[in-house]
Amino acid sequence: DIQMTQSPSTLSASVGDRVTITCRASQTISSWLAWYQQKPGRAPKLLIYKVSSLEDGVPSRFSGSGSGTEFTLSISSLQPDDFATYYCQQYSINPWTFGQGTMVDIK
Amino acid sequence: QLQLQESGPGLVKPSETLSLTCTVSGYSISSPPYYWAWIRQPPGKGLEWTATIHYGGSTYYNPSLKSRITISLDKSKNQFALKLSSVTAADTAVYYCARRVLGMAYFDYWGRGILVTVSS
Q1: Nearest-CA neighbor of A61 among A85, A33, A38, A82?
Q2: Nearest CA in chain A to B63
């Protein structure tokens, strides 16, 4: 299975900060990467697919980049609604696998 | 507006079979171009894809569960189902049903999830 490793596991930030989360794959996954946001007690919400394509309705402050084995999710100016846990997911090779998550909390 | 809703028992005994149903509204599950999937999340842990079914009926399973898991469609009820046999405490999780896009295996719509606890 492809292992997806996110860093950091927890990130403390303030409203207005630029935030970057990294996701590394154990082998190349080309551009087959998605990002999700999950709030406590809620289902994950798709933010980005194919590394950098924003899902409909997702604010433009979210962006994704990378290729091969290293990818990033950036939030240009953190908003109160963005405090959540973020997961990456590879869909290059079955079984599709997720990172362990990065919790973004209030500094 | 597409909606997915999980249902089933919240408590299952060890060694028994976990059975869940996802009711889809706002779209026919037998129509292209989507797949339908189950993803689970143990309490306080990350996400694990378990199974996917194509609108035409082809199935795909996580190899770690393949000997115990079955996914199926009930087109007459616009539902799809998950069965997981010989459960243990390690199968305790929130189970989400979700929609997968054709050609790319990410999940764009999710149900709210159902907590299933395996305990005697």
Answers
A1: A82
A2: A95
